[in-house]
Write a structure and sequence with these properties.
Layout (H helix, E strand, L loop, with lengths): L2 H11 L4 E7 L2 E6 H17 L7 E5 L4 H12 L3 E5 L5 H11 L3 E4 L2 H10 L5 E4 L22 E6 L9 E5 H21 L23 E5 L6 H11 L3 E5 L6 H8 L3 E4 L1 H18 L1 H18 L7 H11 L1 H8 L6 E3 L6 H9 L4 E7 L4 E5 L12 E2 L4 E4 L4 E5 L6 E2 L3 H7 L5 E9 L5 E6 L4 E2 L5 E2 L1 H11 L3 E7 L6 E7 L8 H16 L7 E7 L18 H7 L1 H9 L4
Parallel strand pairs: 1-10, 3-4, 3-5, 5-6, 9-10, 9-11, 11-12, 12-13, 24-25
Antiparallel strand pairs: 1-2, 7-8, 8-18, 13-14, 14-15, 16-17, 17-19, 19-20, 21-22, 23-24
Helix pairs in contact: 1-2, 2-3, 6-7, 10-11, 10-13
C-alpha cells in the first residue's frame, strides 16, 4: 500500500470523525474523513475536466486551509506533480518560480493574486480560483493513482538565502519513507505521554490495524508549501489525529486555546516569543514567585552545564509544585510536547520548556531530504542536539565539517538543473552545506553553515553561528546578531533589538561592549569581535532580510548595510 492509498484508507476509516479543522473568526469549521474524501473527489473531477494528466505540473498558490489539503491530495491522486507556492511571496519572486517550473495549470487563492500573477507573467497558463475547483458535482470516491517509488510528486522551491531558489523534485519513495519515520516517532511520543491510562500504544500508519483510542490533537500553522510542513500534514492525515489549522498568524494564541493540542510543530521564533512573554509576565508580577522562578531557571541552566549548586534542586522542586503547573495550563491544558525545526533553537529556550515539563523534540533536515533527516527520540534526546539519523539514512562528517547524508529520503535532483544536482549529490552523498558533529549516543548538533564561513584576510576560517549565539545569549534583549568580516582583518557585528532597546545611546553601547569584551577574553584573537553597529530595526521577511523560513539573508544584509559595515572597518578597532 502506498502512502497515498494509506491516507485514503485512513480517511475512509474516520468517515464520521473530524480529521481537519480551521479556526475562522473564533469559530471552528471541521471536515470529517468522508467530507474530505468528497472534496478530493470533486477536485479530481475538476482536474480531469481541464485535460490534466499524469506527469503534468500544477501550481498551488494559497494559504493553509482544508481546501488546500484536498486539492493537494487530488493532484497527487491524479498523478500530477504539485508545485506548492508561498502565499505571501513577493510577486516578482513568484513569477521567477512559475517561469522556472512552467506549470500546465495553476490554482490560486483569489482574483487579486491572479491579476498580479498575470501582470508579472503574461504567458501564465490557465488559472483557477481555489473555491471554483470544488464547485462541480459530487464525484464517486476512487482509488488514487498507484505511484512507483521513483514517480515525482512535487517540485518544492527552496527559500534561498542567496541567489534564485531551486526547485527540489521529491518522489513517492522519498515521501513514503519520510512518513514511515515521522509516524514511528509520533507513535513513540504518544505512547510515552498518553494523557490517560486507557490510551494504548501509538496508532500505526495502517488504518484500522490498532485498537481504537482518542485521536492525537494537533495544531498546525506552518505554510504547507514548505517540505517539512507538507510532510507534517501528510503524517497527520495518515494517522489517528485531528488537526486544527491556523488561519490567522496574528491570533495564534487564541487559536491554540481552541485547538488544545497534544503537540505541534514549531520554528524557533515562536518558542522564543512564548518564552519571552512568560518571563516578562513573571518579572512584572514580581515578589516571591518571581524570585523562585528565576532561581529555578538559573539552577536548570547550571544543571545542564554540570555546575549545580546546593539549593538548585530545592528551588526547582518548589517551582514545580507552585508555579510550573499554572504556566503549563496557560500554554495548553493538553499540551505534552513541542516539535521544533527549520533553524537552530537556543539551548536556553529548549531548557526553559524542559524545565516546565514540556520536552522540545528537535528535527533537522532540508527540502532536499524530504523534511526530516534527524529526529529526536522522545526517550533519548539531548538538549542542544537535533536527534539521530532517521532509520535507513546514513550521515557522516565530510570536509570542513560538512554533514553528508544518503538514503531513501534524499531527493533525486533539482528541476532542470543537472549541474547543481551533480554538485549536491557528488560521490553518492547529499552535501547539506551544514556543519555538524555527532555525540557518542548518535545525536547530531548543527554547528554552522558551510557557505556562511567567514574567511579573514589572515586565512582564518570562522563559523559565525556559535559566536552569534553566544552574544545573543548574553544580550537577551537583542533580536538578531550577524557577524561580518569576510576578507577583512577582523570580525564585526550587526546587532538588532526589538522595540525601544534599539537605541544607540552611550549606556547601551557600554553594556554591549562590556559583554563583547567578556566573550573576546575567552576567544582566540581571530575570533574576537572588534567593532559593532546597532541596526535600528530588526531583520524581517517584510524588509527582505529574512527568508520565508525565518533564516538570515546574509548577502542581502551585507548589501543593505554596506556603508555602515565599511565605516566599522575605517575605524581603529577597539
Amino acid at each position: 500500500m502506498t502512502f497515498l492509498e494509506n491516507i485514503f484508507a485512513r480517511l475512509d476509516h474516520a468517515a464520521r470523525a473530524p480529521v481537519l479543522r480551521e479556526v475562522r473568526e473564533g469559530k471552528v469549521v471541521s471536515a470529517t474523513g468522508d467530507e474530505l474524501l468528497a472534496m478530493v473527489g470533486q477536485a479530481r473531477d475538476f482536474l480531469r475536466s481541464r485535460g490534466l494528466k499524469k506527469g503534468d505540473r500544477c501550481a498551488l498558490h494559497a494559504a493553509n486551509s482544508i481546501r488546500w489539503a484536498a486539492i493537494d491530495l487530488a493532484m497527487m491522486a491524479e498523478g500530477l506533480i504539485v508545485v506548492p507556492l508561498y502565499a505571501r511571496q513577493a510577486p516578482h519572486e513568484l513569477a521567477v518560480v512559475l517561469k522556472d517550473s512552467t506549470p500546465s495549470h495553476m490554482i490560486c487563492a483569489d482574483s487579486e493574486s491572479e491579476a498580479e500573477i498575470r501582470r508579472q507573467w503574461p504567458e501564465a497558463p490557465e488559472i483557477t480560483l481555489l473555491e471554483n475547483a470544488f464547485a462541480g458535482r459530487d464525484a464517486p470516491v476512487s482509488l488514487p493513482y498507484h505511484h512507483a517509488d521513483n514517480d515525482p510528486l512535487a517540485i518544492v522551491y527552496t527559500s534561498g538565502t542567496s541567489g534564485e531558489p531551486k526547485g527540489v523534485v521529491l518522489n513517492a519513495g522519498n515521501v513514503g519513507h519520510a512518513l514511515r519515520c515521522t509516524n514511528a516517532r509520533l507513535d513513540k511520543l504518544m505512547s510515552r505521554i498518553a494523557v490517560s491510562a486507557t490510551h494504548g500504544p501509538g496508532f500505526s500508519s495502517t488504518a484500522g490495524s490498532q485498537p481504537k483510542r482518542e485521536p492525537d490533537r494537533v495544531f498546525h500553522y506552518l505554510p504547507f508549501c514548505f517540505a517539512a510542513s507538507w510532510i507534517s500534514l501528510l503524517t497527520f492525515l495518515s494517522r489517528n489525529s485531528v488537526t486544527t489549522l491556523s488561519t490567522d498568524l496574528g491570533k495564534l494564541s487564541d487559536e491554540l486555546k481552541i485547538a488544545e493540542p497534544n503537540y505541534f510543530v514549531n520554528v524557533p521564533t515562536l518558542l522564543e516569543r512564548i518564552r519571552g512573554k512568560v518571563e516578562e509576565s513573571i518579572r512584572a508580577r514580581g515578589g516571591l514567585p518571581a524570585r523562585i522562578f528565576f532561581r529555578a531557571q538559573q539552577g536548570c541552566l547550571r544543571r545542564q552545564r554540570k555546575k549545580s549548586r546546593m539549593l538548585d534542586s530545592l528551588y526547582l522542586s518548589i517551582a514545580e509544585s507552585m508555579i510550573f503547573p499554572t504556566i503549563r495550563k496557560s500554554l495548553g491544558p493538553k499540551l505534552r510536547a513541542l516539535i521544533c525545526g527549520s533553524a537552530p533553537l537556543s539551548v536556553e529556550t529548549q531548557l526553559f520548556f524542559v524545565m516546565l515539563g514540556l520536552p522540545v523534540l528537535q528535527v533537522y533536515g532540508l527540502t532536499e531530504t524530504t523534511g526530516p533527516c534527524t529526529m529526536d527520540d522522545p526517550e533519548n534526546y539531548e538538549v542542544g542536539r537535533v536527534g539521530s539519523a532517521i532509520p535507513g539514512v546514513e550521515m557522516r562528517v565530510g570536509e570542513d565539517g560538512e554533514i553528508l547524508a544518503r538514503g531513501p529520503n534524499i531527493f533525486p535532483g533539482y528541476w532542470q538543473r543537472p549541474a547543481d544536482t551533480a554538485r549536491a549529490l557528488e560521490g553518492g552523498w547529499f552535501h547539506t552545506g551544514d556543519q555538524g558533529e555527532v555525540s557518542p549516543n548518535g545525536n547530531w548538533r548543527i554547528t554552522g553553515r558551510l557557505k556562511n564561513l567567514i574567511i579573514l584576510n589572515s586565512g582564518h576560517n570562522i563559523a559565525p553561528e556559535p559566536i552569534e549565539e553566544e552574544l545573543a545569549r548574553l544580550l537577551p534583549d537583542a533580536k538578531q546578531v550577524v557577524l561580518v568580516g569576510n576578507q577583512r582583518s577582523f570580525l564585526a557585528a550587526l546587532i538588532t533589538f526589538a522595540g525601544s532597546n534599539g537605541s544607540s545611546n552611550g549606556t547601551d553601547r557600554q553594556r554591549i561592549q562590556a559583554i563583547i569584551d567578556d566573550i573576546n577574553e575567552a576567544s582566540p584573537h581571530y575570533k574576537q569581535i572588534r567593532a559593532f553597529h546597532i541596526v535600528p530595526e530588526p531583520f524581517t521577511l517584510d524588509n527582505g532580510l529574512l527568508t520565508t523560513m525565518g533564516k538570515l539573508k546574509r548577502d542581502a544584509i551585507s548589501a543593505r548595510f554596506a556603508a555602515e559595515i565599511e565605516r566599522l572597518y575605517q575605524k581603529k578597532p577597539e
